[in-house]
Amino acid sequence: MSLSKNQSRKLGTLLAIISNESLPSELLEQTIKDGFAVFNDSRYFLTPKGLDEKNRLCTLAGLNIRRGR
Q1: What is the DSSP code (8-state) at residue 45?
Q2: Are 20 and 43 in contact (CB under 8 A)?
Q3: DSSP 3
């Protein structure tokens, strides 16, 4: 199953946050507003809700993306 344009953008934003990549401020603001990310210790992190959403979108896209600790 392919993702919609909005789902693809959301997944790309969540993955960019995990990878500590730079993003346009409007994408970061919306992600924080949706409760998917927080700013702490001078960087952005996914919340548990954000991790669940990343996993849900990856599953829909047929991906298995896990970040090692």
Answers
A1: E
A2: yes
A3: P
- Return all residues near 23 (Cβ < 8 A) that are at least 6 apart: 13, 16, 17
Report how far residue 44's alpha carbon sits from residue 40's, in angstroms, rounded to the nearest whole number: 6
Q: Where are the domains positioned within the chain?
A: 5-59
Q: pLDDT 10s digit of each residue in the chain, 69 long? A: 689 999 999 999 999 999 999 999 999 999 999 999 999 999 999 999 999 999 999 999 988 777 654
pTM of the model: 0.88
Alpha carbons 20 and 45: distance in angstroms, whole number: 9
Please enumerate in sequence order all residues whose Cβ is within 8 A of that of 45, keeping only pairs 6 or more positions apart, or say none: 17, 37, 38, 39
